[in-house]
Amino acid sequence: MKTIRYFAALLMLVTGIMHLLPMFKVPRDPNALPMLAFGIVYFTIGVLLLLNKNISRVLGIVFPLIGLAVGFFVVGLKNWDTMLTIMFIIDAVVVICCITLLLNRNKVKVESQ
What we know:
- The chain is an all-alpha fold.
- Helices cover 85% and strands 0% of the residues.
- It starts with a helix and ends with a helix.
C-alpha cells in the first residue's frame, strides 16, 4: 500500500504543478485563478499523502472528484485540450488509489480486532 500512496502523492504533486501553469501562461484567462486554487490544494494533498496523514486519503478522493466535475461542467468541451485530458486521467487514477488505500486501511482495522 505504501507504493500506491507514494504513486498517488506523486500524481497529486504533478497535477498540482500542472494547475499552476495556466496562471503564468495566460494570466487573464478566467479559469486561471480557480486552477491556481486547485493547484495549491492538490499540491497540499500530495504532501499530506507523502506524510501519511489520515485525512489525505479522503481529501484525495473528494477534491479530485470536485475537480473532475468542475472541469467537465464549467470548463467544458469548448476549452478542452491535451493538458486538461491529462489532468482528468490523473484525477481519476488518484481517486482510485485513494479509495484503495481507504478500503484497505479499514480492512486492516477490522482484521486486527
